[in-house]
Amino acid sequence: MVVTTFVVRFIIITTSFLIMSFEEAISSLRKGGFILLHDANKRENEVDMVVAAEFVTPEHISRMRQDAGGLICLSIDHSFAKTLGLNYMHDILSNAQNFDNQSKKMIMGTAPYGDKPSFSISINHTQTYTGITDRDRALTINEMAHLYKNTNGNKKEIFISSFKTPGHVPLLIASERLLSDRLGHTEMSIYMTNLAGLCPAAAICEMLDSETHTALSIEKAKKYAKENTIPYFDGNEIIKFSKEH
């Protein structure tokens, strides 16, 4: 999906702390910077740190680990996942012969916030050691972006030979029609990388609060965004933009 700069310039989002346009967010993503995404008050009601997968460094992983504190995952485009032969974890477990019917009662259908989880398998790149270090996770995420861009050879064969599961980078598969199907951080992050003309893969991590031991409040997330000059977006504005454009 390509959205021209001309269109993007018309969209301005105002928060009590910042005025950030889609153009500024796209610029941040293209430069390897973060953006913050809030889904919706009636959904998870969480803010995620998001960075384009192709630019992820160990420093990005370290910052998400320390400043956000949630689960660092890799969102990927639905068609890319299909090319690699990936499926949602709930489908994998539902069809697993060695997972008995009694155990299958554990499989999550619809989450409390109204959607099926977007989790697939978790992976490590074969060049990693434990897979959990900042360097290892950055490598795994980077190599997935490189695989997307690879125009030589069979991507599924390269994926199978280059990555192992289980690993330390959980994969999230975006819905096929993105925000038309599901309004999660997985879809929003892929939608934003599409707007930026980047590889449709993004590292995302929930922002948590070590004082309240809950998700970081919107107010605190906005304050963090202001102090660190990071674009902050409310999911409702992204949904509105996607419907209009």
Brief digest:
This protein is 38% helix and 21% strand. By secondary structure, the chain is α+β, with helices and mostly antiparallel strands.
Describe the structure.
The protein is α+β, with helices and mostly antiparallel strands and 245 residues long. 38% of the residues lie in helices and 21% in strands. It has one domain (18-97, 113-208, 227-244): DHBP synthase (Alpha-Beta Complex), CATH 3.90.870. The chain has helices at 5-8, 22-30, 58-68, 78-83, 89-94, 134-149, 155-162, 185-195, 218-228, 235-244, and strands at 12-14, 19-21, 35-38, 47-52, 73-76, 119-125, 163-173, 201-206, 208-209, 214-215, 232-234. The strands form 3 sheets. It has a 7-stranded mixed beta sheet with strand order 6-7-5-8-4-3-11. It has a two-stranded antiparallel ribbon with strand order 1-2. The longest helix is centred in the middle third of the chain and has 16 residues, at 134-149.
Task: List its salient traits.
alpha+beta, globular
